[in-house]
Amino acid sequence: MRDRTDVGAIPRRRLGARLKAAASAVLLTVTTVGISTLTAVAVPGTAHAAVPAPPPGFTLTWSDDFSAAAGTGVNTGTWKYDTGPGSSFGTGEIETMTNSTANVFHDGNGHLVLRALHSGTNPTQGWTSGRIETQAATFGAPAGGVVRMESSIQQPNVTTANGAGYWPAFWMLGAPLRSGVPWPTSGEIDILEDINGRSSVFGTLHCGTNPGGVCNESTGLGSGERPCPGCQTGYHTYAVEIDRSKSPEEIRWYLDGNNYFTLPATRVPAATWTSAVQHPFFIIYDLAIGGGFPAAFGGGPFASTISGGQMNIDYVAVYNKGPGGGGGGGNVAQGKPTTASSVENASLGAANATDGSGTTRWSSAFSDPQWIQVDLGRSYTINRVTLNWEAAYGKAYQIQTSADGTTWTNVYSTTTGDGGTDDLTLSGTGRYIRVNGTQRATPYGYSLFEFQVYGT
């Protein structure tokens, strides 16, 4: 099996799983000058599936079932559009990604659709499509725990005869990328990729340095091509698990619940694994056209390539398993009562830091010290805290726990905070937890997009 070849800076991949009971899609094509056009796509009998219950030992951390009115775009509180020419993504793709509901839309039946469209007569120009990523960059496995990312997807209903150049993907990039850590050092995990309508799936980890390095970039360390029968005509589940409860740690890829590829941490040096895997991620969907990966398997798009092929997404879910094998590995602070020593103004209240959104934030008054506190509702054994700072961050701060909200115990302390995302492994117990800031890094206050707490 041949691994994918990428071009340039930030490649990606796709993966698949559970077959969903459904009738085959009906495709009607009309031949125009230079390229065929998909003029109607119907998937009769394809019912919307509920987000599955967590696997044994896991809890549901976050999900989206894409229930929205037909023809509407994504919820920009949860997702962001990645727009612009495909050439800017470093993979050689040729489409332009847009936020138009011609390319990214809900179908009204519980599915999100990414659709690639072509105009003109030149098959290598005139393509538009869609790419989105989560606002939150908080999905990861705590030390000793496991995280599972899963999605039910129907790949574009194209074949090798009419789908050359199509490149659907469900994948993740490491949160440190958003704070300036370069690709691929910051990590990329490709959960589903297929190219050229081959009814295949590729799963890959990108890490280390590019080109070459211990992770063989820009190809990465992957499964190679695996068969994915029926993945163009029906919904299948694609999942990855990052397991930090084992020694060595490992990443497992699943198609329809079957583990088809496992990558142990021992494949790369410990520092490479830590930089690429031991932190949160953000999730991405996209439908690219052309590029280095399709080119490695015959190229495209060609005059025979159909316009209008679409990637249909039923749901996405993130599940966590806490250290020790039990459940409770999710963010136990989300939605819990949150208070602070001060707020910059009424729109930047403390609750914004625990609302699960990567776009709202808490901001304090412009003085030291300041704190933000969460009442978890009951006592937890806490093993991990993630702080997603805005540009105004804490240089010196402590993470503190308390049984009564009055007497506090330090479980983490730093005087060298550098902003971005702080993913902290720690050990503490309490009903209450707070960030106690003692020195600001800027003239402004302390400002957090998200204050996440993990424990059992």
TrEMBL record:
Coiled coil: none annotated. InterPro entries: Beta-glucanase-like, ConA-like_dom_sf, FA58C, Galactose-bd-like_sf, Glycosyl_Hydrlase_16. Pfam families: F5_F8_type_C (PF00754), GH16_XgeA (PF26113). Residues 46-324 form the GH16 domain. CDD domains: GH16_Strep_laminarinase_like (cd02182). It comes from the Bacteria. One of its GO terms (biological process) is carbohydrate metabolic process. Residues 320-456 form the F5/8 type C domain. One of its GO terms (molecular function) is hydrolase activity, hydrolyzing O-glycosyl compounds. Belongs to the glycosyl hydrolase 16 family. This is 1,3-beta-glucanase. It comes from Sphaerisporangium album.
